[in-house]
Amino acid sequence: MRNQKKLLLEQLDRKLKPFQGTEKVIIPDKGWIHNIRVALNMTLEQLAKKLNMTKQGIKKIEEREFSESISIKSLKEIGNALDMQLVYGFVPKHNSLENLVAFKAEELARKIVLRTNQNMKLENQGNSEDQINRAIVDLTNEIKEKCTNHYGIRFKI
Questions:
Q1: Domains of the chain as residue ranges with CATH
Q2: How much is the average pLDDT of 17-42?
Q3: Mean pLDDT, to the nearest integer, of 28-48?
Q4: Nearby residues of 155 by Cβ (< 8 Å), 6 or more positions away
């Protein structure tokens, strides 16, 4: 099972890799639809006609895109009407899903070890900094192992 989970993470990382760098793209002030339509010298009426909609319908779509409440389906339809293709994906904030799992495992391990150490300090049984760091590393590895072995481990990602 571990190999399947690790393989899944690696496959998804490969699929997400082309999106790296796209998080730096700056969305135009009035949204992509409006700006592309204007750049193509296309009126609201012309785009509306391509989509069998009204001018007001297109205006509402542009507003929904700007307010981030537009559906992926609508974006695809508009893209097709503009002779463009919608590209949809996610960019891992930690460069890969595997790194994300490692980061979250370490975060959880640190929280657990420090909480345990705090309780031990209250009983005058605190650990040294080295012992704490080793415990964090060991627990991180254990959590990562469980995460790649089972789908059952849950932590806020």
A1: 1-20+91-157 (no CATH), 24-89 (1.10.260.40)
A2: 93
A3: 96
A4: 104, 105, 107, 108, 143
Q: Which of 68, 65, 84, 67 is nearest to 76 (CA)?
A: 84
CA distance 97 to 4: 15
How does pLDDT run across 115-149, given as a tens digit for each residue? 887 766 655 666 678 888 888 888 888 887 777 65
Q: Dump the DSSP string for the chain.
A: -HHHHHHHHHHHHHHHGGGTTGGGPPPPTT-HHHHHHHHTT--HHHHHHHTT--HHHHHHHHHHHHTT---HHHHHHHHHHTT---------TTSSHHHHHHHHHHHHHHHHHHHHHHHHHHTT-PPPHHHHHHHHHHHHHHHHHHHHH-S------
Read off φ and ψ for residue 86, nearest 5 degrees: -75, 130
